[in-house]
Known about the structure:
The protein is α+β, with helices and mostly antiparallel strands. The chain contains 13 helices and 6 strands.
Amino acid sequence: MANLCTKVTVRKRPVKNGQTSLYLDFYPAIRNPKTGRMTRREFLNMYIYTNPTEKFQVEYNKKMMQKAELIKCQRTVAIINNDFGFIDHESGKGDFLAYFAKKKKEYSNDRNWQITLKHFTNYCKGKCTFDCLTIDFCQKFLDYLLRLDTPSGTKMMGTTANGHFKKLMCILYAAYEDGHIKENIAPKLKTVKAVSRPKVFLTMDEIKQLAATPCKSAVLKSAALFSCLTGLRISDIIQLRWSDIIIGEDNGWCMHIVTQKTKEDAFLPLSDEALALCGERSQGRVFKGLSKGVVTFNLKPWIQAAGITKHVTFHSFRHSFATLQVAAGTDIYTVSRLLTHRNVTTTQVYADVVDGLKREASEKLSLK
């Protein structure tokens, strides 16, 4: 209750060069929430002429005094509301990047959080204090992301950029909640209207064509066809171990995995044909020697050798599995479970692709 009685007064203190410094005097003293110490003064870094002789000097002093009085009123209201952040002048100089790194560990171990931090660190050239966090500065981070080149030589997709941008917004909201920034700027930031690129997938004939084409990497060929039959991501195929392949409750083979991307715990059915692609059962990893480097060096030549002109990535095999499942009549909910999607709306895009193919096929029939 003592703070409610604190009186705030604008005072003057002569300094050198014919100037007088303006500061606020608090009586009784207030406690600095960061240091725990009592303080009576807040220097405003505002100066007036000690002995004004010219008219412009008089006018200048008048305006500075008016601003000091305005700050005095703001401080009085802040004290009544028990908000003493104004006396912590060092908080804005804190390292936002260090705060970001600390907070991301609290939210998730997802690799995407680390990638977002890396992009933001590059954007601000390795240095960013809380004082740097203006709406304009943070909004331009999205523009920076959209100009980045991906490993495939294209620009970053809007959906990907939005994902990184929303993670920054989450950290900004936390910084506001923790009192590091005075304004909650996160709701004022705008994501880009994302336009998804068409998903590349192979038809069953193309998959058979690929299966009949030799590949310099036998493990890549087996893993790619395995993905076509299971929908498994490259990260999960690399980590797949023989101990993950077990007999399910229906007495059929299945995979018990925890997905690398979403950390979803899933039991996925495994057909005899897919199991055969795994080779002879042993210990450790199923697809020994498979890595993203192996994919990078061998996938494109293999696709070209098969006479396929589509821009196929390893993830296209997962798209192929999903599209062919929907086309074969598998309901969207089941496909969503097979893909370990958290939300069935993520899977709906494959139904839209199939609907588009049906429309295209119907328009090929004509009596003209």
